[in-house]
């Protein structure tokens, strides 16, 4: 740090730094020291989302820069979660070994274990409201980006009622959920009105661009028929 030419200091002596300057310098030194011993490119729990923020997939925390994430990795919460994850993986390996030994002893063939792909975070997305100028139907267009999608993987979608989910409790029957899934990304759920979807050809469509890895889904809601107005009684006829 440059302590030269500070208020109240002598030339060549160096002045006292403020608390904010000392704290900023300390954080920068800690970040440089951590980068010498930690390679972020090999960290399986760091993820940079579409907003430019750093996320810790182990602790589910968000950080504004890599220095903040490095400070988080040295904290008690991250170290405790690392110890728990290591103990869980060690117990899983021990269970697999015991199961294989038991199957070899009984002579039964071992079934292949299902491979679980580690999730890498949420994809970037954009939602636009659309309206058909002829039918006056309201709709939505979803655009999701999957730059790191698995090979030969195609995004999938599913509509879920409010009574199937376990996030918004108690369930609200006025809404439903559109789930879009693609490995190795986390599932995206969009809360939309619980109105009937127009499934006719050209009204509901999906498209996945394999070159740009962009996924599009467009839907239109059926127009709710208006209730006919009650007929008014005829006016009485006056006799002259």
UniProtKB/TrEMBL annotation:
Keywords: Metal-binding, mRNA processing, mRNA splicing, Nucleus, Spliceosome, Zinc, Zinc-finger
Region feature (Disordered): 85-122
The keyword Ribosomal protein belongs to this UniProt entry's keyword annotation: no
GO MF, one annotated term: nucleic acid binding
UniProt xrefs under InterPro entries: Matrin/U1-C_Znf_C2H2, Matrin/U1-like-C_Znf_C2H2, SF3A2, SF3A2_dom, Znf_C2H2_sf, Znf_C2H2_type
Basic and acidic residues: compositionally biased ranges: 85-98
GO CC, one annotated term: U2 snRNP
Gene3D superfamilies: 2.60.40.2690
Bias-annotated ranges (Polar residues): 99-111
PROSITE patterns attached to this UniProt entry: ZF_MATRIN (PS50171)
Pfam families, alphabetized: SF3A2, zf-met
Compartments in which it is found: Nucleus
Sequence ranges assigned to domain Matrin-type in this UniProt record: 54-84
GO BP terms: spliceosomal complex assembly
UniProt family annotation: Belongs to the SF3A2 family.
Name of the featured protein: Matrin-type domain-containing protein
Organism: Magnusiomyces paraingens
Organism phylogeny: Eukaryota, Fungi, Dikarya, Ascomycota, Saccharomycotina
């Amino acid at each position: 740090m440059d302590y030269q030419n500070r208020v109240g200091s002598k030339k060549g002596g160096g002045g006292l730094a403020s608390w904010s300057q000392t704290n900023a310098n300390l954080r920068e030194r800690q970040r440089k020291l951590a980068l010498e011993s930690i390679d972020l490119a090999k960290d399986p729990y760091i993820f940079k989302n579409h907003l430019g923020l750093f996320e810790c997939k182990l602790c589910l925390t968000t950080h504004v820069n890599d220095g903040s994430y490095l400070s988080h990795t040295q904290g008690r919460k991250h170290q405790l979660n690392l110890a728990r994850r290591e103990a869980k993986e060690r117990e899983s390996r021990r269970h697999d070994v015991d199961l294989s030994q038991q199957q070899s002893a009984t002579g039964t063939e071992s079934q292949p274990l299902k491979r679980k792909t580690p999730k890498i975070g949420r994809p970037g997305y954009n939602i636009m409201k659309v309206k058909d100028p002829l039918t006056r139907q309201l709709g939505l267009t979803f655009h999701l980006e999957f730059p790191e999608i698995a090979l030969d993987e195609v995004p999938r979608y599913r509509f879920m009622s409010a009574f199937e989910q376990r996030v918004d409790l108690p369930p609200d029957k006025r809404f439903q959920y559109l789930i879009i899934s693609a490995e190795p990304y986390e599932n995206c759920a969009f809360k939309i009105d619980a109105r009937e979807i127009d499934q006719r050809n050209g009204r509901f469509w999906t498209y996945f661009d394999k070159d740009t890895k962009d996924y599009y889904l467009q839907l239109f809601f059926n127009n709710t028929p208006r209730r006919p107005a009650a007929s008014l009684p005829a006016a009485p006829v006056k006799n002259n």
